[in-house]
Amino acid sequence: MPFSVLVIDSGIGGLSVVQAIRKISPALSVTYLADNGGFPYGALSIGSLTSRIDLLISNLTTEINFDAVVLACNTASTAVLSALRQRYAFPIIGVVPPVKTAGEISVSRQIALLATEGTSGRGYIDDLAQTFAADCQIFRVPCPDLAQQAELKATGQEVDVSLLRSNLSVVSSDEWAKIDTIILGCTHYPFIKEELEGIVGPDKVWLDPALPVARHLIATLAQKETASIEQRSANENAIYFTATISPDAVFKAFLEKIGFSCIRQLEDFVA
Ligand code: DGL
């Protein structure tokens, strides 16, 4: 019986983490929850995020017995991780901006952190910066529109590059020239990395935490002796949405490529 995990984000972003999980552990059973009814998380308060995600986890874990939950969202993880870990017995793995790695590898000591407005302003980031990159200048780039653009791209729509450019313009072109390391501090951003690269130019190191998080998940599962086999249901390897969607062919193909052909609605979810 393979291990079974639940991966959660506000939308398609966490699928960048699922891609990494599939790459290193194809046999793992992954259920995905896209809380599109709460999108964008970047605009939600810590209190709303905590109660919403708590409700989502308890809702799904009463139906299926998961071996671990991955909160594949920087905005949620930097806000609610410690509160949630106190409430549940199974491991909850978060995704936070890899500031430590950036501090280890940046040569120019000039780093950009692209993240939602919520993540950018969190004390969690102050602590990471202070602990792991105190001698670096970290340009925090709050991006109110990037996650939505990634969502649109997944449905086959054109990315609005001028909107991306305007989000990134809080950093001047002289500053961008000196920055050598860019942290993708939102799981949606790997899906529009190409467009972002087109704006900031070549020769930057882009840090995407998906693979390290996937490795951490597998290492955590390896410590468990056996997979939880009770309460398994036919809904594993399904993708759930909290708000009604009418997926078109492009979006269905996008999901299928990441291993989700079973699209479901999380019934009666009211946060
Ligand atoms: N994918 C999420 C993250 O990593 C957030 C997107 C949103 O604002 O909902 O932060």
What does this structure look like?
Helices cover 43% and strands 17% of the residues. The strands form two sheets. A six-stranded parallel sheet has the order 4-3-1-2-9-10, with helices on both faces. A four-stranded parallel sheet has the order 6-5-7-8. It starts with a strand and ends in a 6-residue tail after the last strand. It is an alpha/beta fold and 271 residues long. Helix 1 crosses helix 11. The longest helix has 18 residues, at 46-63. Helix 12 links the parallel strand 9 (238-241) and strand 10. The structure holds D-glutamic acid (DGL). D-glutamic acid binds at residues 9-10, 13, 39-42, 73-75, 116, 119, 147, 186-188.
How many DSSP E strands?
A: 10
Query: What is the ordering of alpha helices and beta strands?
Result: EHEHEHEHEHHEHHHEHEHEHE
Could you report the average pLDDT, rounded to the nearest whole number?
93
Low-confidence stretches: none
Treating each run of at least 4 consecutive H or I residues as one helix, how many helices? 12
Radius of gyration: 18 Å
The largest sheet is: 6 strands, parallel
Shape: globular
Taking the alpha carbons of the first and last residues, their distance comes to 33 Å
Strand order across the largest sheet: 4-3-1-2-9-10
Oligomeric grouping of the chains: single chain
Output the structural class.
alpha/beta
